[in-house]
């Protein structure tokens, strides 16, 4: 049977490969975005660094994943909303940076208001980050 991820790859005219499926699976299972080094560790021997880099780059170009910077300035990747298409991202939501665990979360339910730019300016992507303590870290503080 075809999985949703296989469909997603085919829809974007990408060959279905095991590493590509694994990357999607790992990212979809998390509630936070993931950085390449962490992803690399989780994939183990399944993929080398260069291949993983290419997979992430392709996914970003195809509108499957979007890049978010964490507080260390490391690129993290998160699944895109369904309105993203090739070369056109619509991830206009807040990103939450946890100052404790340094994870980045997509706040998909909070959309950014449309912004009026001065004439001559053309908006590409728009990001807005909130810094604070995430729910996982908050729970730990409260229970200890
Ligand atoms: Zn996107
Ligand atoms: Zn946290
Ligand atoms: Zn996001």
From TrEMBL:
Annotated InterPro entries: FUR, WH-like_DNA-bd_sf, WH_DNA-bd_sf
UniProt keyword annotations, A-Z: Iron, Metal-binding, Zinc
Pfam family, one: FUR
GO biological process, one term: negative regulation of DNA-templated transcription
Organism of origin: Mucilaginibacter robiniae
Cofactor section: Zn(2+); Mn(2+); Fe(2+)
Source species, domain of life: Bacteria
Binding positions for Zn(2+) per the UniProt entry: 98, 101, 134, 137
GO molecular function, one term: zinc ion binding
Positions annotated to bind Fe cation: 89, 91
Name of the protein: Transcriptional repressor
Cofactor comment: Binds 1 zinc ion per subunit.
């Amino acid at each position: 049977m075809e999985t949703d991820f296989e469909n997603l790859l085919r829809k974007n005219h990408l060959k279905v490969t095991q590493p590509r499926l694994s990357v999607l699976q790992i990212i979809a299972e998390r509630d936070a975005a993931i950085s390449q080094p962490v992803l690399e560790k989780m994939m183990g021997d399944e993929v080398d660094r260069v291949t993983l880099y290419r997979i992430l780059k392709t996914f970003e170009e195809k509108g499957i994943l979007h890049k978010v910077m964490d507080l260390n300035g490391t690129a993290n990747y998160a699944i895109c909303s369904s309105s993203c298409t090739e070369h056109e991202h619509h991830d206009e939501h807040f990103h939450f940076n946890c100052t404790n665990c340094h994870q980045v979360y997509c706040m998909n339910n909070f959309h950014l208001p449309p912004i009026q730019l001065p004439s001559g300016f053309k908006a590409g992507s728009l990001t807005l980050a909130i810094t604070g303590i995430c729910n996982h870290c908050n729970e730990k503080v409260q229970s200890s």
